[in-house]
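tool=predict chain=A
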Amino acid sequence: MHRPIRVALVAPPYPLSEAPSPPLGLSYAAAACAAAGAEVSIFDYIVRRYTPEKLQKDLDSFDPDVIGATSVTMNFLIAAEIIRQAKRHRPSLITLMGGPHVSYDIEGTLSRFPEVDVIVFGEGEKTLMELLPHIGEPETWPKIEGIAFRRGKEIVKTPPRPLIEDLDSLPLPARHLLPMSRYLALGYPAGIITSRGCPNQCIFCLGRRMVGAKVRPRSPDKVADEIETLLDYGFTRINITDDTFTANKDRVKALCAEIKRRGIEFNWSAFSRVNTVDPEILAIMRDAGCDSISFGIESGNPEMLKRVKKGITVEQARTAVRYCKEAGIGAHASFIVGLPGETRETMNDSKRLAEELGIQYGYHMLAPFPGTTVRERIAEYDLEILTDDWNAYDANRAIVRTSALSAAEMDAFLDDFLHAIEAAWEEVLERYREGKATPEEVFKVEALSRTELMYQLLSEDVIETVGTFSRNGQDPLRELVMRIAPLTRFGPDFVAKAIGSMVSKGYLKVETENGFVRWFWTHNRWVDRL
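tool=predict ok
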C-alpha cells in the first residue's frame, strides 16, 4: 500500500516585533492539503529560530514529497531561500509557493528562483485540493486553474480560478499543526476571518485584487464555532482580520447575536473603515465583547485621500472616532507616509489630525507591493520607487520619494514621532524604577518586559539550548531560571515569574530520564490534554 502524499508547509521567519498571530492563511492551506488526502506538517520558523540545519533535520524527520511556502513581500526572500535550500537538500521534492507576493510577481519568482516548481496564485485552497492528487503528473498541470510553472524555458500561467463563493465549504484552519503554545506564550491575539472580499479601491492595497471586490461572508454559526475553538486553545483575545468587518451591518449584527446567544465571553478587535460605523452598530459590537477598532485613515489631507481613492473624508474620521469613544470602544488610527505627491504640508496634515483625534495612532511608510495600483501605474503618480530589495518592504523606512520629499525627509518625520514616544516611555520607566509609577504604568512595563523575554526565548531557541541538564538533585525549574537569566537583561526573580507562568499554563513542560532533565515547549496545549 502506498503511503499518502506528504506535504510540508513553511511559515517563514517574520519579525516577532510585528506581533504575529498564528499564520491563518497557511493554516487554511494546510487544511486544504489534508482535505485532498495528504499528510501535512507545518515547519513554523516564526516562533522557532530558522537555520538551514534545522530545515534539513525537519525534512529528514518528516520525509515530505512536497514542500510549500507562503510569504508577504517583506519575508519573500527568506521564504524563497528556504525553498531553495530544501530543494538542494532533497532534489526530488516538488516545491510550491503561494501568497500575495508571488501571486503578482510570477515571472520574477520563477526566473530568479529555479528551485520553485509551481506557484499557486490568488485564493489557493481549491487549487491545492485539485493540484495535489496530480502533483506528480506535470502533464496535467496546464488543466489546473490558478497555477504557474515552467515548461522548458517558457513560463506557463493557467487561467485564474474563480473565487470561492461558499466559504463555509472550506475546512476550518488546521491550527492544530502549529506550535500553538509558543504563540500563546507571546500573548498576542489569534486572527480569524468572518468574510473575504474588499469593495474599496485604495491604490496602495492588494486586498481587492487578492480576495475580490465582492464581500463573501461566512455563516455566523461557523465563525462562532471557530471562536470557541480558539478560546479552548487558551486565547483570550481574537482579532477579526477582515479587510472591513463592518462593510455589512446586518452580517455584523447576526454574528454578535450568535456570540451573545451562546454566551461566549471574550474580548475582540476588528479592522474597519470610518464611513461604515455608527452608534447602533458600535453598541452592538461592544455588547458582544469588542473593545478595539483599527481604522486605516492613511492621511489627514483631503486631496490626498481622493488621490489614493481611499473613499473617506477627514470629517468621517472625526465622527467615527467620536462614536467609538461614546460606545466605550478604543480606536486606533494608522497613517501612511510617502503616498503619491506627499509634501511636508500633507505629512503635517496627518500629524495634526492624528493628534486632534486623541486616540492611539501610528505611521507606516508606503511599501508599493507587487500587484498594487500604485506600483503598476507608477508613471501616473508623483512617486519614485527607490528599491526592489523586498527585505526593505517592511513599511518601517522610506523606499520611495516624491518631487517634494526625499526618503531621508520622510524618515526624519517618522523619527521625530518615534523619538517623542521613546522619550515619554523613558519617563514611565524612570517612575517605575523609582517606585512612583501608577498601577497602569507598572502593568505596561512588566507586560512589555515579559513580551521582550518571550521574544528572546523563542527567537533564540533558549529553552532548547539551555533546557537540558543533569538532575543532580536541584529543583528543575529553579535551575532553568538560573540558566536563562544570565542570557537576558532581566533578573532571576522576573525570569522565574515569567517562566513559572509558562509552566502553570502548560506551555512549558519538563521530563526526566536517565538522570537528565529536559524542558520543552509543548506543541499544542489543547491537543496535549486530550
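The radius of gyration is 24 Å. The domain at 189-405 is CATH 3.20.20.70 (TIM Barrel).
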